[in-house]
Structures are given as C-alpha cells and as structure tokens.
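Late entry, evening session. Most of the bench is empty. Finally got around to the prediction I had been postponing all week. Sequence below, unchanged from the version circulated by S.P.
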Amino acid sequence: MKDDIKKKINRRKFIKIVGGSTICLGAATCLPHVEGDWSSCEDRELVEDLMPASHRVVEVSSANAVYEQDNKKIIVEEVVIEMFRAGLLALKDQTTLAGAWNAVMPERQAGEKVALKANTLSPYVPTSPELLGAIVGSLTDGPQIPAADIFVWDRRVDELESVDIVPARLGVECLGTIKSTSDLSGPGYEIEPACLSGRKIYFSKILTNGLDHLINVSVMKNHLASGFTGCLKNHYGSFSQPAKFHEGCENHIAILNSLPEVASVSRLHIMDALIGVCMGNTHEPSDCTPARLLLSFDPVAIDSRGLEVRDEMRAEAGMGAGLPAGYLAKAAELGLGITEFELVTLTI
C-alpha cells in the first residue's frame, strides 16, 4: 500500500522535525499569533521524497452541475455528489468508496482525524458546501469514518459561516483558526515560528496539532500576485499574515508546501472548478462556469490542469491566456510533482 501514495513523515518524526513548539490549545495564555515577530530566520531542510507515485488528474464535468436563476449561479448538490464519487473511484481505478479512500489514506488508523482544508476568502467563489458535503458523505458512507473524526477548516469562522459551511449543513465540525478579525478566540496560531524563505511564519494550530490526514479542497480563481489560486496556494490560509508573502510568492508557495507541517499530512488535492474567476481578480464574483471537479495526488499536476481550464474558459470568452502561475516551476523543481500529467476525463 505504501507504493500507492507518496511516503509521509510519521507524526512522531514530524514533532521532532518542527521541534519544541508549545502546544496549549484552548489555554488562555496561548492567544492566536496574529502579528508575531516577522524577522529573519534560518530555513530548515525541506521534506525529501515528496514526488507523488501517481500524476493522474481526474477531471469530471457535468452540464447539469450548475444553473443560473435570478442572475445567481446555483450548484446542484445531487450532481456534485455523483461527480465526486465517480472522480474518486477513477483516481486509483477502484470500484468502491472504501477502496478508493483506503488508496488515499492507506495508513489511517481508527480515531485519526481527517480534515478538509477549504478556501473561504471570497464570499463569491468559496469552496462550495455542496462539494464539501459530497466529500464528507463519501467518507462516512465508504470507509464509514465517524463524523466526529472529520472536520472542515479554514482561517476564520465568520468566513466559513458566511458561505454556509457550518455543522448543521455538513454534519461535521467546521473550524476556524480564529473566529474573526475582531474576535481572536479559537485554536489560534503557533507561538513558535516556522521558517519560510528565511522569514518567520506562524502556522495554524489546526494544521500542526489538530489533524492527521489533510484533504486540500481548493478553488479555481485568478490571483494578481501568484497568477492563479489553486491547491498549492490554498495553504496561504494555513498561516497568519499571508499578505506579507505576496511579493516573491512564486517561490514562497512552492517552499510552503515542502515544509513538514504541510507535507507530512497532505493526502489528496481536489479543485472546485464548478464556478470560478477566470477573467477578473480573486475577490470578484464568478465570471466563468467550468462545471468541473479535478482530483489528483499531485498538486503541481492538478494546478497545471486548473490553469489550462481557466485559459479554456478565457478562450471561449474571446480572451487570451491569463497570468502564468510562476510557482509551478519552483514546485516541480522541489519535487512536489510534475507539470506533464495523465489526464482522465469523465462526463456525468
């Protein structure tokens, strides 16, 4: 089974690598580390042997996944459930959900936490609750993982709630590192920094101490700094003050995903391309409807295909290619994946 997915650092070795962080989730003395000391630091060695065993990207499309009503795009949950399950089975040529998830998390033990990292920065184009619900349902129906062992998370509770990513909707816990910019309560950020490109960063304690298996569920959008928001950039929501790392992000994004805090728990990458931002900037309303889902073990491959889909949407609108995602070359250089991939397309 180990040959079916990239090797991961075990939890004990991970704690040794990140070293000495004081963990006090919920303690009054451990307030979220929002500002922090952003001075220079010495980079650690990046995780080695990151290359995924599979570079397959499964792309599932359906003309029935999204429709417009009163100038609003409506995502059809029943169709999304079918799309996601078909894509998950095709990823490793499995015939059951249990078999598919066992291929994604071959070493998972009972009681270990499975976390879905969403992107809720924009209220217009967040990771859709319909897709998150489909993933949660496949986990509970297939390997029958208890709902108590699954949760969805992002940087802030108020952003999750604003797009209906709530326990009542999904049937699992929905966590933010903090509640809002005016209410910093919550798990918070680590007191001890990690080091990214020679500068200190503070990871969410949800990432470092709250989960065992990470499912990265990103969105398909333009971004003026990075060129593209996909799976690799989704971890800019995993540490505080990511705006400080917009300049030079073509290097920062790749290195971030090579740090042990991220690499040791990453299991699967999913891109929500049901709707997207293909023409405008990341905070703007959706201006394209690819009506697709992408799944891969390879974050470089899935982001490369996502970039192609964005440009296909732009071409249909009579526009040229969008900004390139400069971080993909650096990510490939670091061994996170490859830009040449096996594409499997399904139509539901």
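Two things to note before I forget:
The first helix runs from residue 11 to 18.
Residues 2-17+40-199+228-273+299-347 form one domain.
Will write this up properly tomorrow.
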